[in-house]
User: Fold these one by one.
Assistant:
Number 1:
Amino acid sequence: MPRLLLAPMEGLVDAVMRDVLTQAASYDWCVTEFVRISNTVLPARVFHRVAPELRNASRTEAGVPVRVQLLGSDPQRMGATADVVARLQPAGVDLNFGCPAPLVNQHGGGSILLDTPDCLLQITRAVAQALAGRVPLTAKMRLGVRDKERAVEAAQALAEGGAELLVVHARTRDEAYRPPAHWPWIARIAEAVKIPVVANGEVWTVADYQRCVAESGCTDVMLGRGAVADPFLAQRIREAQEGIEHPPCTSDWQILLPLLGHYWRGVEAKLEPHHRPGRIKQWLNLLRRNFPEGETLHQQIRPLRQADDVTAVLKSVGAL
Ligand SMILES: Cc1cc2nc3c(=O)[nH]c(=O)nc-3n(C[C@H](O)[C@H](O)[C@H](O)COP(=O)(O)O)c2cc1C
């Protein structure tokens, strides 16, 4: 069976969403949103806030392991922070070398580091040394900043630094999230490093997964927006391995409804009322790609500004 991972997505997949998505389908592991390390070594409470699963043996309620993602450019501080994180016994530590956000890149973090493979090596090595084998170390990269010229060199630096597995989001920073993802580049990288490589980018359907495998040579895939748009996608990919075809359907939506309700309860517990509607609108905006019922519910909820009004609609459709 292929390994299927749930992608880190800051502002979209937090602990509440991880809880729901890992109830809908199983993953080999999830990765938290990035935690940026700048001027100080962050205390344990920051990691408990981003990854409340750390208090549950670093697993979601459904039992899926959660790895903590760090982003930063200073090897010494990254190493010191990794030591703080290792004491919390996460299922793993992942390093972010893919974030395209201008603010993050201006501070020398995220995808901008792909231009300097030596920095990638220093950071990864410092973190690997700090973890000292206590928890697995992985890294996530894009293909470059402006072009793909140094993609292989960057991947080799991460492997040499001590990453045990590499997730490759098959786009440059400048390509942002625009399709296509360049899956054949993942094959080039996988040939050039000895560690396992996981493909990532633009897998929205089982057919996309199959094309991604054919073009990247990787059966292990990290699912991002596709898993939020179709919470059963990981399950469908596994079923397809057994020859079972099961496209999104109304009975899936019926299973999803109580999960939407559960999500809303989690959002209520975490966010101030005025921030809540935006969260569920964001999810419905992706769900409507696959479920006509999601389109209808999105239209009902989109104009609402009050959390109580959202609750009333969710009750009326049987989600609560
Ligand atoms: C809203 C959003 C937030 C993201 N946040 C992170 C992040 O915190 N860390 C990270 O490594 N990648 C982040 N990504 C990138 C995703 O993990 C993934 O690489 C990208 O979306 C491509 O996969 P997909 O086409 O399956 O969505 C983010 C992507 C999106 C859309």
Note: The CA atoms of residues 95 and 234 lie 23 Å apart.
Number 2:
Amino acid sequence: MISEIIIPKLGATGGDVTLDEWLVPIGAFVNAGAPIATLTTDKATVELEAFRGGYLRAILARPGDTVPIATPIALLADSSDEPLGEYAARAITNLKETTTLLTANTDAVESQISNQKSAIENRKPQPPPQAPIASSSIAPLLQLPFLLALFRSMSLIRRFEDTLYQLFLQGLVPGTLHQYQGQEAVAVGVSAALNKDDVIFSTHRPVGHLLAKGSSARGVAAEIWGKAAGCAGGKGGQMHLCDITIGAPPSNAIVGANIPIATGAALAFQLRGEPRVAVSYFGDGATNIGAFHEGINLAAVKNAPVLFVCENNGYAASTHISLTSRVPDLAVRAEAYGIPGVIVDGMDVLAVYDAAQQAVSRARRGDGPTLLECKTYRYMGHSRGDPGGYRTQHELAEWRARDPIERLRLLLVAQHNVSPDTLTAIEIETQAQVDDAVAFAQAAPEPEPSLLETHIYA
Ligand SMILES: Cc1ncc(C[n+]2csc(CCOP(=O)(O)OP(=O)(O)O)c2C)c(N)n1
Ligand SMILES: [Mg+2]
């Protein structure tokens, strides 16, 4: 079978895309998800990935060509000599004439990447020691239904994000995506320590935070598709998810901006005498923003009930933490504010839960905020426009070997006698939940134009 690889909707404005280079020779086999070409949109240079496995049988565009969205640019086939049929007239089956361009481009990019990689290798902190399964110290204290709920929640987030990724490659998701695969243990471990009326303040990467706190997959999906049934009425999109019913005011894509806002919410709880806690999620990149200092310092001096959760995934967009901070452990900054700074393995949901629970109890009894640094990793690029070429496959593989879902699976099977089939059944259920959410979102009506000016504060 011959399948077309089309240009998905990559750019912010949906404009034309320039094909920069082919990354795979014609005739080679490519796996599903493997990058096959680089493209430049109105926003960034991105990699185009194969949405299925197959042989790159022919290409339909040359490096330098400008191609509109939805145009087929390559053909994947089940064999390297499959007949080209209707495509025969326009298919390019030999890239020789473009190889000079290819080599020149590749050399410049390679040397840029290798410079940054060697700068990083020289100063990079090592990931925390590998623990093969989730933290067993508190595991025996926890009931099986609770552990299974953590597994279900992480599985739902992973399935949701993976499904969106597949649909994105087919050009079926509007806008861009900032994905959460790899970081699930943080949102799920923290949420498990919270009450329903506690609030979370999220970032440009909010899907996992909201699903873990209990937002419906349908509401989140419909928001990503900009539909009226979306959790923000279709006005927010992926970066501005919002669900007041589960304690999630609008997520904030301005890096670090939610930190003082979470402090403000916590001060309100304190003034009203309510036993509620506010959580601010932010990345390593946010710890160099002024709002980090102001928000944490104010919370510290007022003993505000906040939990500051730094998801240190090692990168702010394409920049490694070692290039922006002289200290590899961001939790040490807590000392400057006179509050506890705790480092936790963010790939271990039980360790995150344990640390979050202690910090939340502390906040609830009036002893003030904690800075919790979760060492974690994002498997995908910064956004769907980021090929992630600034990190090595080795680094990625090292972190994937510590996958939070697989670690909890091992623990459940080895220490709680859970049958692997029980866990597979949970994953089938969460996939069905995601498929239902996507179908719902795609079929849902658009927001009414008359509502355009509602929910505006002036
Ligand atoms: C104040 C501000 N500066 C720059 C940006 C552009 N930007 C969006 S996300 C991002 C990187 C954030 O990195 P980090 O805080 O580590 O979070 P991560 O993406 O790793 O989850 C940048 C620079 C922004 N949104 N806001
Ligand atoms: Mg980061």
Note: Residues 59 and 74 are 4 Å apart (CA to CA).
Number 3:
Amino acid sequence: MTETDPQTRSIRIQADRSPHKEHAVPVYLTSSFVFDDAEEMRAAFADELERPIYSRFTNPNVSELVDRMCVMEGAEAGHATASGMAAVFATFAALCGAGDHILSGRDVFGATHTLLTKVLPRFHISHSFVDLEDLDSWAGHVTSKTKLIYVETPTNPGVDVIDLAWLGAFAREHGLILVVDNCFATPVIQRPIEFGAHLSLHSATKYIDGQGRVLGGIVVGEQKLIDEIYTFCRSTGPALSSFNAWLLSRSLETLEVRMQRHSESALEVARFLETRGDVSGVRFPLLPSHPRYEVARKQMRWGGGIVAFTVTGGTRRGQAFLDALRMCTLTANLGDTRSIVTHPDSTTHAKMTEEERLAIGITPGLVRVSAGLEAAADIIADLEQALDRSR
Ligand SMILES: Cc1ncc(COP(=O)(O)O)c(C=O)c1O
């Protein structure tokens, strides 16, 4: 293919058509694939032939999705999983062993926090949380056992941003594997591998699907690391279903236009919220008031679709605000066509202690808005009436 634009190249990658030559590729809804003879079967298992064998580890729909994501992220290789958390766990488990240590940004998705603090210690994998705001402190947390750095940028739910160029250089200097959860930005906004990340990881459930239909996860990056993750997943089984891969792959074709619209609407929402006297700490990467505005401008093409802010009045007001919404949906997801509002303190991050929540800026009044694809004016009108009615 001679086209150079990643979106064009991604759209034009396609799994094989059936003899009917359908335009949208078929869903290869099958557990296994047939061999012509014993020799072909032997050669496939010996990796001498590149062809699907068994859908736990090879399926044309899953391969199409992975190939498309690799082009969009500028990655050598990738592997797709049943959910975002399966991708996070497979990455940690495949690349770290007993005794190893992970350096993680403090502000991470609630289940990732639980994985680091409750699950991995049972396998003798330890962690330190580091502050994205205090980069000078990072070197002091690196030990001879540190293997990997894990960050989200922007973070969920606080919408903090870390300087990826700084982080890439830091990882190189200390010989650490850098893994970036690129879920909030997606590759059309930010390509962490260009800044030195070894792996870029996604909950495909979010913007990659974009319509709140299916779960999925994907990790892309250096071939030799992906080989380890592939081996781990092949033998432990967190496979992405071919149907989900088919949907996710079709959704990638519209990712760029969707992210532009999400980002434009979220910026308008953030600007509106900054005008309100009963709201503080509005966080959106491309608001000049964001503490990492200059960094965000350097590494992000648009700001993404998520805005965080704090309503005055704590938990009671936060929940009253959610109850007063008329259009936006209350649901445990983000990155949908429909705008979604959540209250992290009482939901996704409720398993943390209050002290842990406050350390990453999750105040009792923190609200997260995922701006959907409705008209920005309608999203703002709903937020405005709910703020007014919940006072
Ligand atoms: C930043 C981030 N990473 C990982 C995940 C986990 O993804 P999943 O729900 O697909 O397992 C989420 C889910 O909200 C997330 O927001």
Note: The two ends are 57 Å apart (CA to CA).
